[in-house]
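Think of the structure tokens as a kind of shorthand, similar to the way a musician reads notation: each symbol stands for something richer, in this case the local conformation of the backbone. In the example below we present two proteins back to back. Begin with the first one, reading the sequence and then the tokens, and try to describe in your own words what changes along the chain.
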Amino acid sequence: MILGLGSDVIEIPRIAKACQRYGDGFLARVLSPSEAEFASLLHETRRFEFVAGRFAAKEAMAKASGVGLARLGMTSVELKTTEQGLVVHFMNADHVLTRQGLIWHVSISHSTEMAFAVAVVEQL
């Protein structure tokens, strides 16, 4: 049963400005440690797309869950790209969204100017 659906779109230049202005401090508020490490390896343009995509995905998850962004905690959620797609990992086993039986589906897409994400949460 689907419990929630959320989406978000963000302008990549807006994220680029935040990255340039606040540097690693901004990344530390938006990305998990391993996401930040991966982002640091990317060329600047691709880094901004990556950060914007993760930001949009986590915002979409907050909307789908109904808990809000503050309670979701951007750095407590890690999105890993695998051959099977995007995998959601909660860094804290006590996280509000780690209830058993919840399955997350998250998709991210980019254009040159925008990043878009959609999140669906379902319960088995």
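Once you have a description of the first chain, move to the second and do the same.
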Amino acid sequence: MMANYEFTETSSRNITENDVELRVVSFRGTDQTSIPDEQLNVNGSFKMPLMEYFMAGAEGRLSEVIKEYVVKRLTSTEGAE
């Protein structure tokens, strides 16, 4: 699922909730298929622990973390309607 998508961070900011430091990550997922005149993009945001955010960035895997979040979110709501 989402194999043809490239996810990038569009912005982010720090917040504190219940004395826990978090990062709100806004992102865009772009469909990289070669189907002419068809495109389905995904935009959104989510919260993650601040240190996990910086580790993912330092390890070059923030795009994968975003993709994992999107896939989990989409699959957890399937059949909920």
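Compare your description with these statements about the second chain. The CA atoms of residues 11 and 26 lie 5 Å apart.
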